[in-house]
Amino acid sequence: MSDQRNAVVLVSGGLDSATILAIAREMGFSLNAISFDYGQRHRFELQSARQVCAANNIEQHITVPIDLRAFGGSALTDEIDVPKDRDEDEMDAGIPITYVPARNTVFLSLALGWAEVLGAFDIFIGVNAIDYSGYPDCRPEFIAAFSEVARLATKAGVEETGKWTIHTPLISLTKAEIISRGLELGVDYGLTHSCYDPDENGVSCGRCDSCQLRLKGFSEAGATDPVPYS
Fold it and tell me: How many distinct structural domains can be found in the chain?
C-alpha cells in the first residue's frame, strides 16, 4: 500500500495486539492505536500498551476510560480468583470466569466511533479462535456479525461513503504461529504483558490460562519468552 490509509488498531499491551500493530504497519497503514482502561484489576497491561505504541510509528494513541467494574462478573474486573494451573482439557471445557461480559463488543463499538471520526475504514483487532480461552467474542462469527453492525449503524455505512473492514489477521493462527510472525516483523515481546494475575511488581504468575498459553506458544515457536515469571 502506498496511500497510507488510516487504520485504528486495538492495543491492549498483550502479545497478540503487539503483533497486529506490526502487521498493520507492514501493510502500510497509518496507525492510530486505542486502548481501554476498563476497570481491570491491574494497570501493567496499560503500561505495556504505551510502551508497545512508543516502539512503533504511531500517529496517535488514546486510552479510553470505561468502568466495567460496575457490572463485575469476571475475574478480571471483580473480586473473583483467577483460575490457575488448569490443563488444556479444563481450558477447553467452557467459557472461563476470566471472560469479561461483552468486552470486545464494547471495545469494537468505541473503536468504530473513533474510526468514523478519523475517516478510517480499517480496524484491527487481535482476536484468535485457535489458542484461546473459549471467549465467544473471539470467533469469526462474531467478527462477521459486528462488520454488519458497522455497516448498518454508522453514517458512513448508511451513506455508503466507505466500507468497513474488521481485520483479524491472527484469528486462525496458533499462538506459536503468532509469535513466529511477530518475531519476523521485529516485535519486542519484552514490552508486552499477558498475565491475568501478576504480583505487585508486574511479574507474571506463569500459572493462569493466559500465561500458560503464552509460554506454550513460545516453546512451540522455538523461542524464549523475554518477560519474567515468578
Answer: 1
pLDDT per position as a tens digit, 6-40: 999 999 999 999 999 999 999 999 999 999 999 99
Q: Give the separation between CA 91 and CA 9, rounded to whole angstroms.
A: 28
* Contact between residue 129 and residue 91 where contact means Cβ atoms under 8 Å apart: no
Whether the full predicted model's pTM is greater than 0.70, yes or no, is yes
Contact indicator for 36, 64 with CB cutoff of 8 Å = yes
Grid coordinates representing 105? 463488543
C-alpha cell at 218: 513460545
> Residue 95: helix, strand or coil by DSSP?
coil
Which residue spans within 43-121 are E strands per DSSP?
58-65
Query: Which residue pairs, CB below 8 angstroms and at least 24 apart, start in 136-142?
Result: 136/95, 136/99, 137/102, 137/103, 137/104, 137/105, 138/104, 138/171, 140/168, 140/171, 142/104, 142/105
Distance CA 82, CA 102 (A): 19
pLDDT in tens, 130-166: 876 678 999 999 999 999 999 999 999 999 999 999 9
Residue 180 lies in a domain: yes
Domain containing residue 188: CATH number: 3.40.50.620
* Of 99, 169, 100, 104, nearest in space to 134 by CA: 99
Taking the C-alpha atoms of residue 143 and residue 207, their distance in angstroms, rounded to an integer, is 29
Q: Is residue 227 part of a domain?
A: no
- Angle value at C-alpha 222, between 219 and 227, nearest 5 degrees: 60
* Cα 230 from Cα 224, distance rounded (Å): 16
